[in-house]
Design goal:
Number of domains: 2
Helix content: over 70%
Strand content: under 5%
Number of helices: 11
CATH architecture of the largest domain: Up-down Bundle
Number of strands: 0
Order of helices and strands: HHHHHHHHHHH
Length: about 325
């Protein structure tokens, strides 16, 4: 039953990200050029496919062969793969927040205008900073030696083991939270600046006595909805992630904690479909695919119905 649930959660996330990647890659091949935002979407889709795959494989292994993760090296290897893919996914999604802000918002401040004119450089610099922070994170883990300490603590002394596990878990959670702090603050700042830009734009409309909502205001609100959705899902993702890590530290052999791994797919699954619905090109392509699948399904049902009628007539 648990394996079926894993597959049910895993499949939509994979299909959504594969769809985003294929649509943008096909446009790249067709036009023989690619915009920087489409390149980010391709990288985001690839990182989320990898992240979902890592969670899927971990969940299957923990359910079918939990003894595999009794090895320090295997646990550490799995943790490294998951952190890399999840971090890339988070920072690339944050790049979308920066892109929406600099493309849509309008401020006359020289610093904002400088960032707006150098949008590609800003995004590249942000991604380079994310790689640097990821390297620092792994260096901190090596210095703290959290995973190694957990596996060398003598389990014969249960009191010492329990207290040490709590201390080490708390250390790692602090380090891990620091890694996600920058993307969260950047996305939150982007949302607030978009809101201020919308307020400023609305005040300008009031001065010229315009009562109807123009296209710029609609674009602001659409981008703000996407950013707000991202932040809410991001907070849920961090909470579920830290809860699963904490419980895995305290109860490594409890199979009920395996269900928490499934919650780690909520963020890449939900945000992927938010991106599809918020992007007109992706939304139109998705509608075409769904209409094609619907027509194919109808044809299949008709064929089966005709086949059943022929079979019934032959029996009669």
């Amino acid at each position: 039953m648990y394996v079926i649930l894993i597959i049910a959660v895993f499949t939509p996330g994979m299909l959504g990200n594969v769809f985003i990647g294929l649509v943008n890659y096909s446009d790249w091949v067709k036009n023989k050029k690619i915009t920087f935002i489409n390149f980010i979407l391709i990288c985001l889709a690839a990182s989320r496919i990898s992240s979902v795959l890592v969670v899927f494989i971990d969940a299957i292994i923990l359910e079918l062969t939990p003894h595999v993760y009794h090895s320090y090296s295997r646990v550490k290897c799995s943790d490294i793969f998951w952190v890399i893919t999840d971090q890339l996914s988070t920072w690339l999604a944050t790049c979308l927040s920066i892109f929406y802000l600099l493309k849509i918002a309008h401020f006359s401040h020289p610093l904002f205008l400088w960032l707006k004119w150098r949008l590609r450089g800003v995004l590249v610099g942000f991604l380079l900073f994310s790689l640097f922070s990821l390297i620092v994170y792994f260096l901190l883990l090596e210095l703290l030696s959290i995973w190694g300490d957990i596996y060398v603590i003598p389990k014969s002394n249960l009191t010492l083991y329990s207290e040490t596990i709590k201390t080490l878990a708390f250390q790692k959670i602090i380090v891990f939270d620091m890694l996600y702090l920058v993307p969260f603050l950047v996305s939150l700042a982007s949302l607030l600046l978009l809101f201020l830009s919308l307020v400023k734009h609305s005040q300008n409309l009031d001065r010229i006595s315009t009562t109807s909502e123009d296209s710029r205001a609609k674009i602001h609100k659409k981008a703000m909805k996407m950013l707000l959705s991202f932040l809410v899902l991001f907070i849920i993702h961090i909470f579920c992630m830290q809860l699963s890590r904490w419980l895995f530290f305290l109860f490594p052999n409890n199979r009920s904690t395996n269900f928490l791994l499934l919650t780690l797919n909520i963020f890449p699954l939900s945000h992927t479909f938010i991106i599809i619905l918020g992007n007109s090109k992706l939304r139109q392509r998705a509608m075409r695919v769904l209409q094609h699948l619907k027509s194919q399904l109808q044809e299949l049902i008709l064929s089966l119905h005709r086949l059943s009628r022929v079979f019934t007539m032959e029996i009669a």
